[in-house]
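In this supplementary section we document a worked example of the pipeline. Step one takes a protein sequence of length 378 as its only input; no multiple sequence alignment statistics are reported here. Step two produces a three-dimensional model, which step three serialises into structure tokens for compact storage. The input and output of this example are shown verbatim.
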Amino acid sequence: MPSTIDSAFDSGNVRVVRQEGPFDWVLGIRRDAGGEFFQWFHFRLSGACGVPVRLRLVGLNHSAYPDGWPGYAARVSEDRRHWRAAPTWFDPSTDDGTLEIRVTPASDQLWCAYFAPFSLERHHDLVARVALEPGVASRVLGLSLDGRSIDVVEMGEGRRHLWFLARQHPGETMAEWWMEGALEALVDPAFAPARLLRRAFRLHLVPNMNPDGAFRGHLRTNAAGANLNREWAAPSAQRSPEVLAVLEAMDRTGVSFALDVHGDEALPHVFLAGFEGVAGIAPQQLKRLEAFRQVLAAFAPEFQTRHGYPVLQPGQAHMGMATNQLAHRFGCVAATLEMPFKDSLEFPDPSTGWSPERCKALARSCLAALAAVAHDLP
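The serialised model returned by step three reads:
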């Protein structure tokens, strides 16, 4: 009996182009709302237990980040809990760019994704679980265009405010795995950096900035086709209510430090991007950013400072990006944390690639580094 493929579920995204044999599929990726981006895929293969399967995703030369495919390995799982890297090859000369995945499923159900998915149900479970911890509160900052909640989890007794954001780009699911690790660490009474941070600051964590895009299986946009990380200069209720709700909350609290958590499709490294291109930035802001970067490099061996995005000259920054806008608006330290879809070249793990477990471990290192520089934050 031939295998089947479906993706009509939370964060599912694939379309069947053709089937060339019972276990040989040619597939495509649907574009985000707005039509500009496509890269995220997530689907289920059924009925192929113990059989070698060939899966080909085609047309990828026109994807959002074609440089993300060479050296990349798709993630697969039979139980949706443990994700491994599958043998994967990219050929830009075949079918306008083909990613070929070869796998022999150990079950009649195999899930395949661009990175380990983080479902909305898992999101709600995370918020509900952490909100039961002593001293923790959760509230809804606003609603998305599809009516989904923009949740924030808050804790801490200090007068200074730390903000953490994740999944402005919904397909960058490693960002919410990082958030899960951060929230679990912050409520762990044995984790001393969390106790210090909760005593010194009020912490605000937004685990999923873009629930509509996440559910729809988008890479970068919300239901209106807006790239939320280009909306921070002038968010609107019609186009980017998610950003508007968070920015209004930030205006009420002020911001001492902000970390916007992302994933990078092409670069096989963990790194920080700063706000050097913003005009009029105070030297002390840059000094504090560099101090955090250097301490994080000492705390997290997988984090490195040699590879990343080009540093812009003052006045060249895109002010619609969260890190730039927040550093300008609040005079705070802000940074974008990038993790790879591929693997960390500094500490590769061929069996899993960069993984949810490594995202969560990095979150603890980030909190420890932040605690080490907390005294110097405004």
